[in-house]
Amino acid sequence: MESESQKEVTDYYKHLSLFWTDILHLMSSKPQALTSLGPMRAFASNSKKISTELIQINENLMEFNKYVTEYYKQLAETWNEAQKKVNLKAPDVPHDIEQIESFKRIWIDIFDNDFTELFDSEKFGVNYGKLVSKELELTKNWHNISNVILQAANLPSKEEIDEVYKEIHALKKRVTKLEIELKKKKPNNIEVTKNEK
Amino acid sequence: MKSESKFDPKIIEEMIKFSKHVMDAPKLVSAPDEISLEITPHDVVQEIDKTRLLHYKPLTDKQHKTPLLISYALINRYHILDIQPEKSWVRNLLMQGFDVYMLDWGSPTSMDKYLDFDDYVNGYLDSSVELIKDVSSVEKISLQGYCTGATIATAYAALHPESVKNYIATAPVIDGWRDTTVISNLAKHMDVDKMVETIGNMPPEFMYYCFSVLKPFEQGIEKYVNFFKNIENKKFVDNFLRVEKWLGDTPPIPGALFKQWIKDIYQDNLLIQNKMFVGGSHINLKKINMPIFTQVAVGDHLVSPECSMPLHYAVGSEDKTLKIYPTGHVGMIASSLSQNKVLPELGNWLAERS
Questions:
Q1: Is residue B2 domain-resident?
Q2: Alpha-carbon span B335 to B327, nearest angstrom
Q3: Binding-site residues on chain B for chain A (CB distance < 8 A)
Q4: Does A5 have pLDDT greater than 80?
Q5: CA nearest A121 in B: which residue?
Q6: What is the ipTM of this complex?
Q7: Domain segments of chain A: what residues?
Q8: Do A115 and B8 touch (CB under 8 A)?
Q9: What average pLDDT does chain A have?
Q10: Which candidate from A115, A133, A166 shows the least CB-CB separation from B191?
Q11: Tens-place pLDDT, residues B161-203
């Protein structure tokens, strides 16, 4: 129920923000058109994307905090369990160098085993996957905000640069294939030239 | 009072000694960045995009006829195979009379995010093999793949068996579902599509995270305590810093390649099931019909033996050898064990077939 009401509040503010940015944009679009070549016009027409992204960031941050809390909870629980095992195995305070060394060995072995077990578990893998996924969504929000600023400055967006990279990659592949085909055909060409002579 | 009387004063002595070592460390030891790796002399015989093909200068008068090309892993740099003269994999092979080449994958940038398995297998690796064949006037070469470099080399050996005379797979990443390491668990739960779409290449920082969760206390605490304890042992410190420098130098992995690697190897496990495709060509491990030598380390916490060994049973080769060594992932290639056991055994096997 709590999350539903939270969603309603977020949706309300999203709508409110979109409504006012749209209305203000429509109301001010005529005077803005006078400066249509400068950055302000492009920025103003895309500025609602920034407010939408900021609201989205807020939502993603809440989710991210949920997974990061779970992440540290898992680490803390494992630490406590491992420490209990160490206390059971080495209850006495070490008094000399040899005892310190063996205590350290026990401590490291138990902690390494318990933490490896945690990192290898389904619950850690699932939560960690979701945590990384939320981080990526936050990165995407940041990309989208940056794109608005880039567009205002008449610079290519990330997607446009990616298209160029993709095109270069495809062209390189084609050139390599052509080079290989040319190399294969070369001996035949020489023979043809010889026969012609 | 009773417990105070049991307290060994040597503990205080040791603590003072350790603190002194920490204080003296900057005076006694170079920073990792200041260390120059004594790399075995070589020529760069081919450069394509960011990759370089290295040809090592011979160290013997006579050499075996068949050259050897090493396909290094995609994580960290090839330097680990030439970390220092007395532990160098490359140097040892040169001393055994082999003609050694190494493919350095270089450091991909954002521009290289669309490079995929096809580019690595049928592009960079194939171009290197073709050049070596031309230079050495041979029809086939010997190929060695290490770690993820062995995944690429395995795909190559299956697609181009006519160019590979002998194949050496060292800790190869093959069967993702059998892999018991932490890396495999993280990979299985990764939204790799979203990752590559959003950030492009796999950043080194993420790789560091993945490594830091492997034996976190042994590697994160104990190793550095030992470093300061042994700060006056020049040999120990030198070796430690070289390995640390290598560990800290990992290039990004091209996005498209990383995506296919995680999906096809760890998530869907296509390679071992003979269901993987590279550049539209089907990879059938039964087509690997040349002599094959698989090297596996029992204590490998990066690529578990269970992940590597299935290759030995899946290939079509009749002449096949599987060797299991009592060491770890790096120990197999850069240690006294590798110099005294792993490399001599590999050398004997390869010499008979070169």
A1: no
A2: 9
A3: 3, 6-8, 10-11, 14, 49, 110-111, 113-115, 118-119, 123, 180-182, 185-186, 188-191, 194-195, 198-200, 213-218, 221-222
A4: no
A5: B185
A6: 0.78
A7: 2-155, 157-197
A8: no
A9: 83
A10: A133
A11: 999 999 999 999 999 999 888 888 888 888 999 999 999 999 8
Q: How far is A18 from chain B (nearest CA, A)?
A: 25
Q: Taking the mean position of all CA atoms in its chain, how far away is CA B4?
A: 51
B49 occurs within a structural domain: yes
Domain count across chain B: 1
Q: Does A139 touch chain B (CB under 8 A)?
A: yes
- The answer to whether residue B243 is domain-embedded is yes
Q: Do A115 and B114 touch (CB under 8 A)?
A: no
Q: Please state the three-class secondary structure of chain B as a single string.
A: CHHHHHCCHHHHHHHHHHHHHHHHHHHHCCCHHHCCCCCCCEEEEEEECCEEEEEECCCCCCCCCCCEEEECCCCCCHHHHHCCHHHCHHHHHHHCCCCEEEEECCCCCHHHCCCCHHHHHHHHHHHHHHHHHHHHCCCCEEEEEECHHHHHHHHHHHHCHHHEEEEEEECCCCCCCCCCCHHHHHHHCCCHHHHHHHHCCECHHHHHHHHHCCCHHHHHHHHHHHHHHCCCCHHHHHHHHHHHHHHCCCCCECHHHHHHHHHHHHHCCCCCCCCCEECCEECCHHHCCCCEEEEEECCCCCCCHHHHCHHHHHCCCCCEEEEEECCCCCCCCCCHHHHHHHHHHHHHHHHHCC
- CATH number of the domain that residue B223 is part of: 3.40.50.1820
Contact B114 A143 (CB under 8 A): no
For B41-95, the pLDDT digits (tens) are 999 999 999 999 999 999 999 999 999 999 999 888 888 899 888 889 999 999 9
Q: Tell me which of A58-67, A156-165, B120-129, B229-238 is least confident.
A: B229-238
> Across the interface, which of B182, B198, B216 has its CB nearest the CB of A120?
B182
Which pair of tokens denotes residue A54? 């900021």
> What is the span of the domain harbouring residue B283?
27-352
Q: What is the pLDDT of residues B21-44, one digit of tens each?
A: 888 888 888 777 777 777 899 999
B180 chain-A contacts, CB cut-off 8 A: 120
| Cβ–Cβ gap B185/A119 under 8 Å | yes
